[in-house]
Design goal:
Blueprint lengths: L18 H17 L6 H10 L2 E6 L5 H11 L8 E6 L2 H15 L7 E5 L2 E3 L6 E5 H10 L6 E6 L7 H21 L7 H4 L4 H9 L2 H9 L6 E6 L5 H6 L4 E5 L6 E4 L8 H15 L4 E5 L3 H16 L8 E6 L5 H5 L10 E6 L2 H4 L6 E6 L2 E8 L4 E8 L2 H9 L7 E5 L3 H6 L14 H9 L16 H13 L11 H8 L4 H13 L2 H11 L12 H9 L7 H22 L2 H14 L4 H20 L11 H11 L4 E4 L5 E3 L5 E4 L12 E9 L3 E9 L1 H7 L9
Helix pairs in contact: 3-4, 5-6, 17-18, 17-19, 19-20, 20-21, 20-26, 21-23, 21-25, 23-24
The structure holds adenosine-5'-diphosphate and magnesium ion.
Length: 712
């Protein structure tokens, strides 16, 4: 089969490979592509897309949907009119790894004909024809281009995951699709305003637009949009019904039998059970890599350490086990390592979050270890509490996980629970939109011109209270007016790729004259676990934290960490190369028990949002050492999450009345100030607040008078 370069793709060889290597690899990839289950139905699929403007494609993970279908459509001429093919993914890692793979399959450098775009990173160019991106990113693009006019095809991939962005995107695409079909019928091009589309959303959007876009809409003739929904779950009905009885096609997967093993008794320590199982497989089973499903970065990192510890106790010959973590916040170059074949004689253990359930296919897996847990978002609309908690998987998730073992041959799956327990699991997972804080969704929809969010045509209606609460919060934040319209501040907030509360904090900080500090603070708050506190070195890591700790709270502590690291880096750069300085910074992080990955991520986010606020014309000034001013700014930004100390030392959240404790990881855990603001609420056996700062209650009265009054 000719690669895409047979069309107008430029050909490029890789610098570090010899010609021989390159052709051998190319041939191997060609062979792999031909062998994919989907290759047999290429023509039929292209025909189906030609004949149906909306199509649902269902197929097993690994059948080739994500990597192949965009290439088939490109070859089939769907980019001929200059349109591009956009494929959305719920996860950043999938967008990146798949784009890399497809660029390689096509023999083109990444970022040219094949590229990807995720929040804070755009690897595409004017030549890009196949663009992988996160679903959240496409939603943002719709803010600037309500018709998504540059796309001739949009593929919503992994729709079965039903992330909140996917659900909102489906609703939006339904409107865009209608609008563009109408446009081609010649209505919209002459009388744009009333006849543009059925979806009132876009109509209002156009009303709200400035003349520039309005004229562009009038002038341009939109081609109809081909919309494809892809899913790995067999139940296509819900998507088909939502899109007015759209046609659904099934692609057969290739699945070998997988033996399922259960434990005889319930496991109390999941990590220990996983470790025992990993070593049992390693020492007693034949060749093949192991995939272990864990709940998050911290758990993955501690299992990784424990594996290395136990390996050291094994005889030399049994130590040929390599660990590879993969989770969404891991930098992509590290994630890519998972896909490399293990060296001869070695066995790989991949420690993954549910990212490896369906989003990515890792070759070589023969054994799956599944503790049956997943970290999931939950939301209590009454309390307005959004939290991440560890819950049991659904049956559908357990099946997806075990399926990972049977891709290349018969496999084995070890479920670390009893068979009777499996029977009790729910069939499928509740869509995220039903268990999430909707602040961001409501803000985004409003920014897209959809004012009546309650009656928006969601594929699954979110809880009404959750929407009403979000509207109320947006009103309190000044993003929505009393007439329920998006305010200027609201528009500004929607433009920033951040949690609305953080966007608001940046806007407030520009007025307070401490935007420099708030940018850093928000960047640090946007990443997971800056501090690295391994169980066995708790004392050392606590001491390291002390040198950064501010008695005023965690926000200033995070600021100290960033500034100290940055000073170290900048000084280093004056005498070293950038690369050396980066390396030294990683060493510095290690010495100071800072998670260098997270810090790097925060630095990247910082430079991106700095660009964003500069583009918006906000003034980036520093309050220098005026920490009082900065904390007043925190109060003015985070007043929705304030709490007062109770006589017993617990805290009462002012708006919800919820009783919480300060999390032990906070620098204020012992100090227990009278009044605090915080960013995060987590539930374990207690309700804890994290990222906490000391404020004065009177500041709330002064700075958020619509909510707070002087107490007796
Ligand atoms: P689906 O979307 O149906 O789950 P994909 O298109 O993602 O399937 O993957 C199809 C096949 O392509 C995989 O089974 C694997 O063999 C190969 N593949 C995909 N991504 C990569 C990658 N990053 N590295 C190596 N092989 C890959
Ligand atoms: Mg896929």
């Amino acid at each position: 089969m000719p690669s895409m370069s047979a069309n107008n793709f430029s050909r490029n060889t890789y610098h570090h490979q010899t010609k021989g290597d390159f052709f051998a690899r190319k041939q191997k990839i060609e062979q792999q592509r031909k062998n994919l289950p989907i290759a047999a139905v290429e023509r039929r699929l292209v025909e189906e897309v030609r004949n149906n403007d909306t199509l649902i494609i269902v197929g097993e993970t690994g059948s080739g949907k994500t990597t192949q279908i965009p290439q088939y459509l490109f070859k089939g001429g769907f980019c001929r009119d200059g349109g591009i093919i956009g494929i959305t993914q719920p996860r950043r890692v999938a967008a990146i790894t798949v784009a890399k793979r497809v660029a390689e399959e096509c023999g083109v450098p990444l970022g040219q004909e094949v590229g990807y775009a995720i929040r804070f990173e755009d690897v595409t160019s004017g030549q890009t024809k196949i663009k992988y991106m996160t679903d959240g990113l496409l939603l943002r693009e719709a803010l600037l281009d309500p018709y998504l006019s540059k796309y001739s095809v949009i593929i919503v991939d992994e729709a079965h995951e039903r992330t909140i962005h996917t659900d909102v995107l489906l609703g939006l695409l339904k409107n865009v699709h209608k609008a563009r079909s109408k446009s081609i019928n010649g209505v919209a091009n002459t009388e744009h305003n009333n006849n543009l589309n059925n979806g009132h959303a876009l109509e209002e959007r156009i009303d709200n637009q400035n003349d520039g876009i309005l004229k562009a809409c009038q002038a341009k003739k939109y081609s109809p949009l081909k919309l494809i929904i892809m899913s790995a779950s067999l139940d296509a009905r819900v998507f088909s019904e939502y899109f007015g009885g759209a046609r659904a096609v099934h692609v057969q997967g290739r699945q070998f039998p997988v033996d399922i093993f259960y434990t005889h008794k319930p496991e109390t320590d999941c990590i220990d059970a996983a470790l025992i199982t990993i070593f049992q497989i390693h020492l007693e089973e034949g060749p093949g890599d192991i995939l272990v499903f864990l709940t998050g970065q911290e758990e993955i990192e501690s299992v990784e350490r424990l594996i290395h510890e136990r390996l050291r106790q094994l005889p030399e010959g049994s130590r040929k086990l390599l660990t590879f973590p993969i989770f969404s916040s891991l930098p992509s170059e590290k994630q890519m390592k998972v896909f490399m074949p293990s060296p001869a004689g070695y066995r790989k253990v991949i420690l993954a979050t549910n990212i490896a359930e369906t989003s990515v296919t890792i070759p070589g897996i023969k054994y799956v270890v599944d503790p049956g847990l997943v970290k999931a978002r939950t939301y209590d609309p009454k309390m307005g509490v959004d939290s991440l908690i560890i819950v049991t998987t659904s049956k559908a998730q357990a099946l997806q996980r075990s399926g990972r073992a049977g891709r290349e041959g018969p496999g084995k799956c070890y479920r670390l629970y009893q068979e009777s327990f499996f029977e009790k699991l729910t069939d499928s997972t509740l869509p995220e939109i039903r268990r999430c804080d909707l602040l961001n969704v409501v803000l985004q929809l409003k920014a897209l011109g959809i004012d009546d969010v309650i009656n928006f045509d969601f594929i699954e209606k979110p809880d009404r209270t959750a929407i009403v609460n979000s509207l109320w919060s947006l009103y309190l934040l000044g993003a929505v007016t009393e007439e329920n319209k998006l305010s200027d501040v609201g528009h500004q907030m929607a433009r920033l790729p951040l949690d609305p509360v953080y966007s608001k904090a940046l806007i407030v900080a520009s007025q307070f004259g401490c935007l420099k500090e708030m940018l850093i603070c928000v960047a640090m708050l946007s990443v997971e676990s800056i501090f690295y506190a391994p169980r066995e070195k708790l004392e050392e890591s606590r001491n390291a934290l002390k040198s950064f700790a501010s008695p005023e709270g965690d926000h200033l502590t995070l600021l100290n960490v960033y500034l100290t690291a940055d000073e170290f880096f900048q000084k280093n750069k004056t005498v070293n190369s950038e690369e050396k300085a980066e390396k030294n910074l990683r060493k510095w992080c290690k010495d100071n028990y800072i998670n260098s990955r997270s810090l790097k991520h925060a630095r990247d986010i910082h430079s991106q949002i700095l660009r964003n606020v500069e583009q918006m014309g906000l003034c980036v000034t520093s309050c220098e050492d005026d920490t009082l001013l900065f904390r007043r700014c925190l109060a003015a930004s985070f007043f929705l999450k304030a709490a007062m100390k109770q006589p017993d030392g617990a805290y009462r959240v002012t708006l919800s009345g919820l009783i919480v404790q300060i999390h032990p990881s906070s620098v204020l855990f012992r100090a227990k100030p009278e009044c605090i603001v915080f960013n995060e609420l987590v539930h374990t056996n207690h309700s804890y607040v994290r990222n906490v700062s000391r404020i004065d209650y009177l500041w709330l009265v002064e700075l958020a008078p619509h909510l707070y009054a002087v107490q007796d």
